[in-house]
Design brief:
Distance between the termini: 38 Å
Structural class: alpha+beta
Radius of gyration: 21 Å
Largest sheet: 8 strands, antiparallel
Helix content: 25-40%
Shape: globular
Number of helices: 15
Order of helices and strands: HEHHEEHEEEHHHEEHEEHEHHEHEHHHEE
Length: 386
């Protein structure tokens, strides 16, 4: 995405892409694509005008709202490695917006951690989640992380760091919208908080300052859940769910405001729950793999334990929003009933189209559309079972 951002900015324009400049455009769009401008302009798939595709039969086609419309719909969120190879895409472009950012940070005190088991901290974090729909209505968006300040055993001080911003609005709009949260935080015993506005800059400068590239080639076990308004308003259960993450790292992607929710759920094949989502929560556990030893420094038992931990924590997030689902590009590969979790009511149509255009399974993965039609034997061979 970084090269596309740079090319567009030379014309004083930008596109809707991922926060990390190393994100590839193909997987980003076929999975749906959230990004740092999404709350105003929608998901990546909402901004696709046309695609060039190589079909499973090797034919090159053009897909848009007028021709090959089934391909166009399926490739916008139906997952990678499934319907064809994306060889080019035409995207909407927008004037580069101004960004007014701030850092909202709060930590638990030593006494809060040791004597109160961080109860007030997690209650405060739950209150922040309950206010997210109001913030979105006022044009706010951003990303947060929550993690312990120490890796030592026992209760640790916690921190919640929120990069939050508005587009083409005054800094005062941002500060005013955050006033109820700051009042709550300042009144919460055992919690130290701050709100630090930063200078307004254009989006190109904002990307360079705040959206830095992750290391390419890192390996993570991932899991996520889409939380709707019903989930985030449930402060009691949100606090309990967040406490389960007190020994690790939780990320919140708050990029699903009016620009996402105003788009009809049938305009693309992405999980329709995105149109009611307030925030996507994700958990990542890093593990080491190298080319000399495929297990790296991890024993099979360590890998299994990490997989079980991700699945267990994802299950806690799922319990608060059982009917929403996941973002396929950041999901747990062991997600139960992945067809429903990744695509909900769109799955039957996606499966019919997959079987129609790729009956020989030229494109396949175990948790893609049509994954249930094939399996792998003990030797790793892919065998058709339907």
């Amino acid at each position: 995405m970084g090269e596309i951002y740079d090319a567009a900015s030379s014309y004083n324009l930008t596109v809707i892409g991922g926060a990390d400049p190393n994100v590839g455009i193909g997987g980003y769009l076929t999975g749906g694509g959230h990004g740092p401008l999404g709350s105003k302009y929608g998901l990546g798939v909402d901004n696709v005008l046309e695609m060039g595709i190589v079909t499973p039969q090797g034919e090159t086609i053009v897909a848009n709202s007028c021709q090959n419309v089934d391909f166009f719909w399926a490739m916008k969120g139906g997952g990678g490695s499934t319907f064809g190879i994306l060889i080019n895409v035409t995207l909407k472009a927008y004037p580069i917006p101004k960004v007014s950012p701030a850092f909202l940070v709060f930590n638990s005190s030593t006494a809060e951690a040791m004597e109160n088991d961080n109860a007030n901290f997690f209650s405060a974090a739950a209150f922040v989640h309950s206010q997210l729909p109001n913030l979105a209505d006022n044009g706010l968006m951003g990303y947060y992380s929550m993690n312990p300040l120490s890796s030592a055993a026992g209760s640790s001080q916690m921190t919640f760091a929120f990069l939050i911003y508005v587009l083409d609005q005054q800094e005062s709009t941002l500060v005013t919208a955050l006033n109820p949260i700051m009042e709550k935080l300042l009144a919460t015993s055992g919690v130290n908080s701050s709100l630090v506005p930063r200078p307004t800059v254009d989006f190109t400068a904002f990307r360079g300052a705040y959206l830095t590239a992750a290391t390419v080639g890192d390996n993570y076990l991932a899991g996520n859940r889409l939380w709707d308004e019903t989930a985030v308003r449930n402060q009691y259960d949100v606090a309990k769910a967040l406490k389960a993450f007190e020994r690790g790292y939780l990320e919140g992607t708050f990029q699903t405001g009016p620009g996402v929710q105003a788009v009809g759920s049938n305009q693309s094949s992405i999980n329709p729950a995105w149109r009611q989502t307030v925030i996507e929560l994700s958990k990542l556990i890093r593990f080491i793999v190298n080319f000399d030893d495929l297990m790296g420094n991890n024993s099979p038992a360590t890998i299994l334990a990490a997989q079980e931990l991700v699945s267990d924590l994802t299950g806690i997030l799922r319990a608060l929003a059982p009917d929403t689902g996941c973002y396929v590009n950041e999901a747990d590969v062991h997600e139960p009933d992945y067809q429903k979790a990744f695509w909900k009511d769109h799955y039957p149509a996606l499966l019919r189209f997959k079987r129609q255009v790729d009956p020989d399974g030229v494109f396949w993965c175990s948790v893609c559309v049509g994954g249930e039609d094939w399996t792998t034997d003990n030797g790793g061979k892919i065998c058709k079972i339907r």
